[in-house]
Structures are given as structure tokens and as C-alpha cells.
Design goal:
The protein is α+β, with helices and mostly antiparallel strands. It has a single domain, classed as 2-C-methyl-D-erythritol 2,4-cyclodiphosphate synthase (60s Ribosomal Protein L30, Chain: A, 2-Layer Sandwich), CATH 3.30.1330.50. It has five helices and seven strands. Bound molecules: magnesium ion.
């Protein structure tokens, strides 16, 4: 068994869709990035990649590559899962936290769990997605962006 940890952050900007955990959330701003800027999925990708010795999301999917412009990060997560399998690992479970001041995410968390479980081909009971504000502190607290943290456990023989 191995564990992996992932962190990501993105700025909020007008004129962008807010997509978290593959779920589009109505809001006056969205996250800025080359892909759909799904900060939660990026943290999960980095956690899986870290666990299996796969580097990080920037190395796997460079933001200089036009192929990834506007892409759903769920597609990136699917590729990360395939890479983990190719390296001899299966994802056992994921736990994660999104930090965002507004809007309230609680109503959207079950859909995020379902999306991640579907892409990783494991049960929703093996996925944790939590949401917190930053209590008004710092840049996230001022509503300038969002951050996400994720840990994963993988198991397998670990092909070299
Ligand atoms: Mg990112």
C-alpha cells in the first residue's frame, strides 16, 4: 500500500464557469486555468500520481499543450487512473477538502463524490469530499480563489 497527497489552488475570475469535482456550480465567478480549472480534481490527480510515482499533473498534462485547453479535469483523472493501473496500482480510497469562501458547496458534494467514484471505478463510500471556508482569512478568505487538498491510498504490486 502507498499513500499520496495532493494540493492545488486557482484564482476566481469573472467570465469563467465554476467546476468542482466535475460538477458545475452556479456562481458569478469561476476558477481560472488552462483546463476547466477544477481545483478538487487536480488535487486528487496529484495525490494519485504522487502515490504511484507518476510525478504531478503539470508533468503529465502540460498547460502549454493546446490539447488540454478547457478540458474536463475528469478526463485527466481518468488518464491518471489508467496510469496508476499501468503501474500496477488500484485506488482504495480518497479523502479531500475544498477551501472556498462562497458559494456554499454542501448541496453539491454528493454529485462530486459520484463523479470521482465513477471515474476511479470505486464505490462512493470510498470517496470523501468536504468543504470549508477559510473564515475570511487570507486570499482564499477574501474570495480571490480556491484551494483543495487530497489524500489517497493505493494498493498493488507496483510494477516498475
Ligand atoms: Mg490546477
Amino acid at each position: 500500500m502507498r499513500i499520496g497527497f495532493g494540493y492545488d489552488s486557482h484564482r476566481l475570475a469573472v467570465g469563467r464557469r465554476l467546476v468542482l469535482g466535475g460538477k458545475e456550480i452556479p456562481h458569478e465567478k469561476g476558477l481560472l486555468g488552462h483546463s476547466d480549472a477544477d481545483v478538487l480534481i487536480h488535487a486528487v490527480c496529484d495525490a494519485v500520481l504522487g502515490a504511484v510515482g507518476g510525478g504531478d499533473i503539470g508533468r503529465q498534462f502540460p498547460d502549454t499543450d493546446p490539447a488540454y485547453r478547457g478540458i474536463s479535469s475528469l478526463i485527466l483523472l481518468e488518464r491518471v487512473r489508467e496510469l496508476a493501473v499501468a503501474k500496477g496500482f488500484q485506488v482504495c480510497n480518497v479523502d479531500s477538502t475544498i477551501v472556498l469562501e462562497r458559494p456554499k458547496l454542501a448541496p453539491h458534494l454528493p454529485a462530486m463524490v459520484e463523479n470521482i467514484a465513477r471515474v476511479l471505478q470505486i464505490s462512493p463510500a470510498q470517496i470523501g469530499v468536504k468543504a470549508k471556508t477559510n473564515e475570511g482569512m487570507g486570499l482564499v478568505g477574501a474570495g480571490e480563489g480556491a484551494a483543495a487538498f487530497a489524500v489517497v491510498l493505493v494498493e498493488g504490486e507496483g510494477l516498475s
